[in-house]
Each structure stands twice: as C-alpha cells, then as structure tokens.
User: What shape does this take?
Amino acid sequence: MLYNVDEAQNLIIFIGDGMGPETITATRIYSKSEDKYLFFERFPFVGKLKVMGEICGGRTAADTMLYNVDEAQNLIIFIGDGMGPETITATRIYSKSEDKYLFFERFVTNARVTSETVASIYAHVANTKWECDAFMPNKSTMCKDIARQLIEDVPGKNIKVIMGGGMQCLKSDASGSFDDPIDKNACYSVDGRDLIRDWTLDKEKRHVNYAVVTNTWELQKLSHVDYLLGIFSNSNFNYEYQRDTSPYGMPSLSAMAEKALEILDSNPNGFFLVVEGGLINQAHHEGHAKIALEETVALNAAIEKIVTILEEAEKLKDTLIIVTADHATSMVINGYPHRHSSILGLSQPVGYDNANYTTLTYATGGPHNYQFYADNSMGNLSVLLNPMFNRTYLVAENKTIHCPAQKILRMDPSKQDTEDYTYYQQAGILTDQVTHAGTDVNVYAIGPMAHLLHGTHEQTYLYYFIGFATNVGPIKKVTDYLDSVFL
Assistant: This one.
C-alpha cells in the first residue's frame, strides 16, 4: 500500500459519543451481517486510542484529543455520541502569533448545541451542567452559562455553522409540543433572554449574510450564507426511529452534515467542521441497545454521504478522514449465539436459572435493566436481594432478619420482545443508569498521513497528529518532515 504523505487540505473527524468497539461490532451485525462491514470500517488504517477509566466522560475526551490547534485550513470533525467530546478540543484553534483564537469552527450535532461534547469547542465552565441560567449556582454571578458563551462571547459568536437542538436553553420560556416536548431533565432558561434574537442582532451589526432555520424544509431551501444557526428541537433530537421525517420535522444527521459541507465548501479560507452523533450515548445510558445501534447506523450514513460528496468533487485525496469515539459504554456482546441470528435476540439457556440470556447485555444498568427477583414465601415482607452473597434479607417492622438464602432468579428474556426499541437489556450491576466504560476506542483513518494513526495511542496523540497532518499547531511541519526524511 502506498502512503499518502501530502499535507491534508481538509480534515474530517467522525466522533460517535459512546460508540465503543462493542457498539460498532453490534451495529455491523445489526445493520449488515457478521460477514459485512460498516462504511467506515473499510478505511485502510485502524488503531486504538486509550481512554482512562476514571475520566472516560465525553467532555474530557474532546479536550484531550483536539486542544490547541493552530492555523487550521479545512477540517471537518464528525462526533458521534459515544465517540466523544475529547475529540472536539482540537477545534479550539489558537494562534500564538496573533495571541487570539482563529475561528474556523463549525459544528453539527443531534444533541443540544450546549451539550458537553460540542460545548468544549467554545465554552469554559466549571460544570458541564451549566447549560443555561437555570442551572447556574447562586454564587456564580461572575460566570456565564454555556448558552450565553455560545452567543455572546468569542469564539462562540464567530462560529460559522451551528446546528443541533437546545431551544429551551437559548430562549426563555420556550414552549413544547407533542413531537417536541420540553425536556424536564435538561436546563430550561427563565432569565428572559432570547439568545437566538441576540445572535441575529450581532450578525446584522456586522453586516454579514445569515440565516436561522428550525426544520428540514427551511434547511433544504437554504442557499449560501456566511453564518447559519439551526435549532431544531427544544432539547436533544428525537431518536432516529421516532424522528418526524416530513419537511417540518427535525433533519437527519446526514442532511445537516451535507448542508454544513455545502456552506463551508464555498469558503476559500478553508473550514473546520464538527459533526456529532450525540444520541448513541444517550440511548446506552437509558439501557436501550437497539436505539443505540440505530443511532450508530445514522452516523455511519452521514459518514458515507459526506465521503461520497467529497469523492464526486475530487477532494477526497486531499482530505484526511478520521472516525473515532470519546469513550465506550458497559454494553457487552455475549458468546454462543447461533451464526446469523439477530444481535438483539436470545443466545442460550443458562443451566443455573434455566433462563435464556440475550446476546447483548450491560455490565451496569438502571432499575429497568436490573431484572432479578426472589420468591417471597414468608408473607408480606419486603425482599432485598443480595446476589453477591446468595442471601436474602427480609425487612419487617423496621427489623432486619437474616434468613437462609432463597434462590435468586433472573427474568427470562424469552418472555419479552427483545427486538423492541424500548426493551431494556439486562444488567448485572444496579446503578442509576448504564455507565461509561474504560475500554480503548477504535480510530479509523483514510487520506493524507492516515497511516500515522495505525497502532495504539494516547487520546492526546490525536491532537498532535492533526497538527502534523494539516500543518496546524506548534509541531514540525509536514514539509519539514519530508525534507528531513527524503533529502
């Protein structure tokens, strides 16, 4: 194989939030088959990025991978939920010579535009929950929430393309609908500000061409603009299987990525684009493996769409394309299912409890995923299960009675529809939700200097690699490296 050692004119990084190796494998089997591949799995160079178990959250990953990138030309970063916020840190472009940020950033997400992954592009906060005024602590009067930093401060207000959800964070007293309800678990602005209006006023003062869009039809009819703000939902997008695909619904990740590329492609000074598939991780946290796989399919489709467009425009050979994740989750692919059986189906009965198990389970999970029970044969007593010690504790009249062990049983998934989107895969450890995992994440690459991602690396390596391949940052230029090797 001949290595492409040219300087990359374009950089595309696809990041799946929570898209660990198990999610990729399961999605391949789910959407293709065991003997086929996802589109990005055919990239010629494959490596691994090490994720530290204690800090395997999305925001730390973005900061780790993409921090302090200089002199960007054309960069596109696709971030899939589960792929990670650490990757986004490289979108902070810093010029030592001018002592200020250079703003080539553009980002697209199907999560909130204030969520931790994409917020690492433009915001500096002590807590990623500070997405709007309502979640700010009383003693933080000297601090700005993430939404205000996006609209009011540099670099946020200079970002050319912003697309995603989060209307309720940007506009006070936002109203919900049946298809797009208010998210009671997310920040809901109540300070009276309309940051979308403030964004438009800023662009008018600067005499630039801008557009605000709120649905698929408005996005599709959009022609050239200098600045684009697309806010399509109150919180995160609906999952792909629930999304309104009509012209008045939320756009697909592919549609947003394509429009972002169309706008950026007209910029002679280059571009830096982040595209996050932000719902893979959310589905995993909720314990719904099928939804997570569907969201990974959507990210894969966006990757294929953008690569096809670049190939038709004869720009693919100048474009470095990277696919990776910020972290994995605790989903497990169990052994011994029949070949070509459904990845969402049953494997084999277990001799201990005579119940089947599914091919996909979680190591950790919330109450819906923790599916164990014991027969209370002693009357109206509360039964607390302790499978670790095979003992049942019976609680009555505020007294704890230690009893001989009852057999602790697991619910038989064969009695449920494991192919349903809302099925909760079983988990072995009870937590508040499915947790992240410290597993290494895969990285796939094609294009100029892609061979340098082959092997196992720290996540911070990605930042230095991006700088080297694009002649960005305080590292040796590609041309200097080639001269030293070949001259």
